[in-house]
Amino acid sequence: MEVKINQSWKAHLADEFSQKYFEELTEFVKKEYKEGTVYPAPKNIFRAFDLCPFEKVKVVILGQDPYHGPRQANGLAFAVDEGVTIPPSLQNIFKEVESDTGMPCVASAKKGDLTRWAEQGVLLLNATLTVRAHNAGSHQGRGWELFTDAVIRALSEQRENLVFILWGNYAKAKGAHIDRSKHLVLEATHPSPFSAASGFFGCKHFSKVNEYLIEHGEIPIDWL
Q1: Which domains does the chain have, with CATH numbers?
Q2: Is the confidence at residue 214, as pLDDT, over 60?
Q3: HEC profile for 145-199?
Q4: Which of the residues 65, 81, 113, 179 is marked catalytic?
């Protein structure tokens, strides 16, 4: 099956694209786009992979579903396009960046498009890559989770010294596929307003990521 995804990922995930579950997932997603409104736009389904090739991944931040409101989802977990109101979870992520680094985010960094992170090696990966408009979780259980589990396994097995950031119980469950003897795993509550004060604020994940990357000879991420 021909899948429009960055060539570096295609090489590592080729076996998944020929699996029965992926064929069924593809048919389901095509039908959903044909019959109603689905996010993100089809061209952005694999945008996280296109902006962050397999060999360039340094950090993986796991989300759950794409945003299901108009103009929000852009293919990167937690991100929105420039000009779109920044969602509460992303506002809290920016607050933690500022608190952790001790530096204010410059005005441009307040924009919700996290392309600048992805291009530095941060894979902003949702567990489910599509969603029906105004219907959170509507594409769960259709095969995306199997695919993104395979993504995590491939990174865990074939790369070394990556940082996996797991916010919330859903992301933590995906951590079962990570070899923690080879990689750093950082966990906290979800940055949602409902849970951020219970462990996300003060987690200092952004400085911990850079400390680890520097220790292993990598260029740190410019979160600002």
Answers
A1: 7-216 (3.40.470.10)
A2: yes
A3: HHHHHHHHHHHHHHCCCCEEEEECHHHHHHHHHCCCCCCEEEEECCCCCCCHHHC
A4: 65
- Strands lying side by side in the sheet with 59-63: 122-126, 59-63, 163-167, 184-188
Tokens at residue 210, please?
């850079």
The predicted-structure confidence for 1-56, as pLDDT tens digits, reads as follows 578 899 999 999 999 999 999 999 999 999 999 999 999 999 999 999 999 999 99
Q: Who's near 107: CB < 8 A, 6+ residues apart? A: none
- State pTM to two decimals: 0.95
Tokens of 162: 């990556």
Q: How many CB atoms lie within 10 A of CB 109?
A: 18
Asked about 113 being catalytic, the answer comes back as: no
Whether the upstream peptide bond of residue 40 has omega within 30° of 0, thus cis, is yes
Whole-angstrom Cα Rg for the chain: 17
- Under 8 Å between Cβ of 209 and 216: no
Dist. CA 9–CA 158, nearest whole Å: 12
The first and second tokens of residue 186, run together, are: 């950082």
